[in-house]
Amino acid sequence: MSTFKSEFMRTVHARGMVHQCSDAERLDELLATGPRVAYIGFDCTADSLHVGHLLQIMLLRWWQKTGHKPIALMGGGTTKIGDPSGRDETRQLLTDEQIVANMASIKGTFANYLTFGDGATDAVMANNADWLDTLLYIPLLRDVGRHFSVNRMLTMDSVRLRLERDQPLTFLEFNYMILQSYDFVELWKRHLCMVQMGGSDQWGNIVMGADLGRRMAGAELFALTSPLLATSSGAKMGKTAAGAVWLNGSRLSTYDFWQYWRNTEDADVGRFLRLFTELPLEEVARLEALGGAEINEAKKILATEVTGLCHGKVAAAQAAETARQTFEQGTLAADLPTVEIARARLQAGVPAFELFAEAGLADSKGEARRLIKGGGARVNDAAVTSETQPVSLTDTGADGRIKLSAGKKRHALVRAV
RNA sequence: GGAGGGGUGGCCGAGCGGUCAAUGGCAGCUGACUGUAAAUCAGCCGGUUUACACCUACGAAGGUUCGAAUCCUUCCCCCUCCA
């Protein structure tokens, strides 16, 4: 492990970020002798990346931090095909407009993790639509297709698993790995990019790209994948009540993002600190060793560190402070999610179930009613006993706000306007 | 192209003329216990509604019937075998 010569390989291995790597020794040598180029592709299937992508982003960040040049490849072209890896069903086809809009929305995330520019180790953003959109079918078949063995393609997990489970696989999707392979070669030609990284489900696609590069351009290309992430209790990472844990602040507030990490299971704290923060490993070891309730301190550090990288240190500190006031002091924090309700309505009194639904603490009025019936709703920390119990201006605190709580962790403020 | 099987709520998966907003499992929410953890136990888990009730939903559209997720027709999609 620690016998690696290059800082990158030492770091990512020590932090448990590597699942598989092709010819690690040779790659290590190359990395030790000068700046190299690596890329990771991100498909534009949603308008935000989520925590499932975070490990990949951290790989690019370490890549740059240890003296190399990262490329964030936006899958403007491949998203039109849909990666069949790891799924039993064909992805819903997105329109070109959706893809373009998603890409624009995703791009901002990288600015927080990577330094872009024209320097030797500055990050570059590319879009594979730039070369995939204009490909011609016959030349593609002759130049690229002849290097692919269908026999081999059928053994790839993404294909084999579909076939074994009698799930459909369209010819469209069957082509995905060819285009991803082509990307690798194209980036080699354009930027001398010699490494493709990705999640472990991408191993097959990446290795095919490396092979293609060798055949088409005589290039020596490498594959490096990160482990598949699950929480210790086995759940897929990144799911909450509200859905995925998004990286864009417009999809998930900084406070909620911070809370997600704060609520990490005990058993995951050390692992997550290594994977998603840049704290020195000795510090991680110390935090991880904390027992019992003390580990909560480690969770706060984890939350603030991860949030700091994603949303900035100021926003992270603010989220931490909001949480501290809310949970440790039981006071009202200023930047809890806030809804504004017309003064006149509050004057008259708003039924509690309506207010909870409007504040976003319940998805529907029915759910708000159930929440109240189940005893999980509180106004200013006093349990709501009746669904229709009116909440009015008289509930307003000194600072002009009413605090609503759904369960112990979800809070919102109501302000009369 | 021929023959057969199938498309059910976020997912898996029962149901096969009424008692079906649809068994069960997973996921999720709330409560208890705790440390804003896990595990465990309990309740909830389409929408509007105090409620009665109504609306939406079992691939799509029609039809039969007092009544259809369940039967018929057409269409779309998937799987298997044959060509």
Automatic annotation (TrEMBL):
Alphabetical list of Gene3D superfamilies matching this protein: HUPs, RNA-binding S4 domain, Tyrosyl-Transfer RNA Synthetase
| Main localization category | cytoplasm
Note the InterPro entries from the entry: aa-tRNA-synth_Ic (IPR002305), Rossmann-like_a/b/a_fold (IPR014729), S4_RNA-bd_sf (IPR036986), Tyr-tRNA-ligase (IPR002307), Tyr-tRNA-ligase_bac-type (IPR024088), Tyr-tRNA-ligase_bac_1 (IPR024107)
Q: What class of enzyme is it?
A: ligase
Residues recorded as binding L-tyrosine, renumbered to this chain, are: Y39, Y176, Q180
Q: Which domain of life is it from?
A: Bacteria
The entry assigns this protein to a family as follows: Belongs to the class-I aminoacyl-tRNA synthetase family. TyrS type 1 subfamily.
What does the UniProt record say this protein does?
A: Catalyzes the attachment of tyrosine to tRNA(Tyr) in a two-step reaction: tyrosine is first activated by ATP to form Tyr-AMP and then transferred to the acceptor end of tRNA(Tyr).
Subunit info here reads: Homodimer.
Task: State the name under which the record lists this protein.
Answer: Tyrosine--tRNA ligase
Q: Gene for this protein? A: tyrS
